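Homework help board

Subject: predicted structure for assignment chain

Our instructor gave us this sequence and asked us to write out the predicted structure in token form, then describe one feature. I got the tokens but I'm not sure how to describe them. Can anyone check?
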Amino acid sequence: MTQLIFLGPPGAGKGTQSQKLAQSLQIPHISTGDILRQAMKDQTPLGVKAQSYVDSGELVPDQLVQDLVQERLGEADAKSGWILDGFPRKVTQAEFLATLLETIHQAGERVVNLDVPDDVVVARLLARGRKDDSEEVIRRRLEIYRSETAPLINYYRDRQKLLTVNGNQSPEEVTNALHQVIAF
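My token output:
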């Protein structure tokens, strides 16, 4: 069973690479952003709760995101494996996930860190040409990533679950490198 968590700064290629890999492995690509939007669209009990936070401009609380992830990992298509993209974002969420996976007998996840230098991330995100992607905003997002999400790298390294891939290559080279590291 393949269970992968993708880490990396914004613009590292997590979404692109995790979707490609999920497709080739025939397992679901689980993006917390996607499940949140779907739950709100479907007006599920958790989706209705999340919508109230979104409507008031607040961040959806960790507990609600964790509940959504727990619900999604319990679905039939996730029994044969999955790729998580966008969760966990903090060590407390990683600890929650570890406990959840033990409980549902799915422990054995591996974590892929797409390593990309900040200057490359900035250049990639600026090239997308989105209105909200100014260099100042991108650098602020990277600061937040480094302070909140990057500690996960050490968390998973300490548990011998971390696989690091150089994300500063062509998309095809990154895909090939991913296939090599997960095949071990």
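Reply (TA_rk): Your tokens look well-formed. For the description, you could write something like this. Strands lie at 2-7, 29-31, 81-85, 110-115, 162-166. That's the kind of observation they're looking for.
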